[in-house]
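Input chain follows. Return structure tokens only.
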Amino acid sequence: MSKTLKMIKKAGRVDPLKGKGSVINECSLFSKQDIYLFKEGKHFRLYNLLGSHATEYQGVTGVYFALWAPNAKSVSVIGDFNGWNNTTHPLSARWDSSGIWEGFIPHIKDGEVYKYHLISKNNNYSVDKKDPFAFYDEIAPRTASQIWTDTYTWSDKEWMKERGVHNSLDAPMATYEMHLGSWRRNAQRGDDYLSYKELAVDLVKYIKEMGYTHLEFLPVMEHPFYGSWGYQTVGYFAPTSRYGPPEDFKYLVDQCHQNEISVILDWVPSHFPSDQHGLSYFDGTHLYEHADHRKGFHPDWKSQIFNYGRAEVREFLISNALFWLDKYHVDGLRVDAVASMLYLDYSRKYGEWLPNETGGNENVEAIEFLKELNANVYKNFPDVQMIAEESTAWSGVSRPVDHGGLGFGMKWNMGWMHDNLKYFAKDPIHRKYHHHELTFSYLYTFTENFVNALSHDEVVHEKGSLLSKMPGDDWQKFANLRLLYAYMYAHPGKKLLFMGCEFAQWDEWDHEKSLDWHLLEHAPHQGVQQLVKDLNALYKTNPALYQYDFSSEGFQWIDGDNSDQGVICFVRKGKDAKKSIVVVCNLTPETYHDYRIGVPHAGQWKELLNSDAKEYGGSGQGNLGVKKSDQIAWHGQINSVSLSIPPLGILFLSAKN
């Protein structure tokens, strides 16, 4: 009840306090400054004004409603409280040409279900719409909005004060990507979803035990089709009701923070579904989407594309981004399908797209929107991260806006992912002919702030699980998978792994069921899980593996050219040169004894991690913990060390103090 309604005109059409059959149109949450900013396209906290807000007027409690629908002839609120009668609670259009309809309805309370009934100026088209700014939606397949007042009290004050340290570019970032509904199910409730509150216990405990620093959720925003995994968003301001009310999702985020886990949300400003109750053809016109099919319809997802050239649409999206960072204390957004926003001809044939004013294929309006989005996010929340899923060679995705970039903090390294999965899928006997697929990434890895991601996209749509992609018999499959994971942690860039991959799921991910946790009854799967746990611990405790992820200062080749034996070795460096990490990878099933490599320091070299260790399911080939260097020049270094290099294995070595 903290919002205060302002008097805007003295004459109301009804007695303002005579019950649910009245609407008071003489008051508003909008100030003159709010309307000015809205018309200028610069109001990015619209969630405080548009939508439904519990408040009071003249001592009477009720709900203020406000909706942007400039092409409507009439708008009314319908719901359980009035029997869904579209004549009893009409809103009034503001006189200032803002296109906003508003009104205060006394006596209705939290939990009331409602929609807006609109009649358009366009041929009297009529439709019932959910509230685009609703904070709470009915559980699908029901489609109405619900009135909800935020009363949650946060307990993450200490985290919020210092989260910038955890989210900085020179901090460790090991992300567990997950889908809320299929991580684990409750068999006692008939294979039902775990609730937000249950996840706040089970999931948070698991993430902490595994040692991840970040937790990334596939879109939690309300979506009518469960099989879209959240990427067909309808309720942009409402966490899905499938797992509980909004305050329970806040509790989940809060518990993450109290356990020093950053939370990232997947966010979809690239398109939205055409469900009638959603944003599509909202007021009888193409309000949120482009009217031209060549710019307003996405052929891959059969969905609508936002009109980034419209100021109110940009305000809607930027307000939404700030909303999750503000009201839900989220630590970052991973922006989905950025490439589809940048290019007008994305996934389109000749004649199916509309060139820009200069005849090019760049979507100038979307580019400017992304810059404005990122500039405003970092202006208001400098301690979070904006991460782009961008699959092309577009330059400067993670460069600041004032330096000519799009302004993201990081970008998924799709090239690294494709090249490495292609390489690892090959039988080791053929890998020497494809050595460049393994090493090519080092030519561009410092051109952007990259996240090396093995995401959900790689284990669906008949692509097979990561384990099933690996060649050879079962032992080699597991060894290759352990090598792939450890190599990801050794390679410059932040880390991301999709749920289930950490214990070597055999099957593709299926959103309709739980992960195959029973696999952990078997030693090979236990070994992979233990390796990932140990990799997270190794990564977080060795700054050489993360401080210079985005700078060539953090990387030096020892030998990247031994394609015949399938061995590469390099140095990862941090701010303390004495604590560098030497990484040695053997991409073949051969064991190499007395294999000499140059090292940057004389002395004893400790084996920090060996992916072939028996506790991980390996053969146990290694160096008994420590190897002493020799003053024998090798690989351009004054000193060198003779190693046993395990089959399909990787070694992490550090100078022993």
